Amino acid sequence: MSNIRQVRVFAIASGKGGVGKTNTSLNLALSLAVEGYSVLLMDADLGMANIDVMLNLRPRFDLLHVLKGEKALEEIIIEGPLGIGIIPASSGISRMANLDHKMHAGLIASFEQLERSADFLIIDTAAGISDSVISFSSAASEVIVVVCDEPASLADAYALIKVLSQEYGISRFQILANMVTSTQHGRRIYAKLASVADQFLDVSLGFLGSIPHDVALKKAVQNQKPVTLDAPHSPSAIAFQGLAKKLIGMPARASSGGALSFFVERRTRGIPVGERGV
Ligand SMILES: Nc1ncnc2c1ncn2[C@@H]1O[C@H](COP(=O)(O)OP(=O)(O)OP(=O)(O)O)[C@@H](O)[C@H]1O
Ligand SMILES: [Mg+2]
Asked: Residue ranges of the domains in the chain?
């Protein structure tokens, strides 16, 4: 048992689109790699591959091949910057959003093979509250909800947390405020969400931290490079590095069989689920 590494699974969600999930996923993954951890980054925006675009990659194979049983998960992983493993999604293929039973089985088997291959699995989920967002969030050890200071972002984050808690038994969330003007601004965004959630929902919301609004990040996106590599000393890159340290320091919350088998179990059984795993 001693050489079995527990994979810690973080799902990055938001409700509203365009608030920074993909940048967060990618830069957190890289920042964890900088700290010496092995990281897998999964693009779970199944119909609209985000991470490939962000890194200017053109993977030959993606999750659709795994779901069709043509490739093993191991075979589609491409090596990204700093040695992170990227699990690419398909672009523009809507059937990826509607997985049938056979496809589930293929994916499940593949995750079983991957069990010992990473310290962290970061899952970049799609916008909205689709089945896939719910499944991946249910499977994660922690759900990070990215919000920014816009009524629609706060409302959609609240709606997501409400559905995941009331219908799927997820009670712990980490809030990450993005595009803030100061640390206090980030805390205020968190406080707005937490005050409504405390009043109406039975959940525990942690404040993970905030990422400043940063022109260097925008520029990096234009260059199809992650800001962590394009401008490592920029305010957002420094913030991502701090967040990675926070994730590393968080108590591991994985099932005894490892987070991925937990992940697999949840996918097999389907949801809703009751208590989340410890
Ligand atoms: N901290 C930041 N500072 C400045 N701009 C930012 C920041 N975070 C995100 N952005 C801007 O927001 C855009 C959207 O970010 P990103 O693609 O990460 O969002 P997303 O939540 O993954 O979107 P989608 O829901 O479409 O997948 C970026 O291209 C960038 O221009
Ligand atoms: Mg995205």
From this structure: 8-267
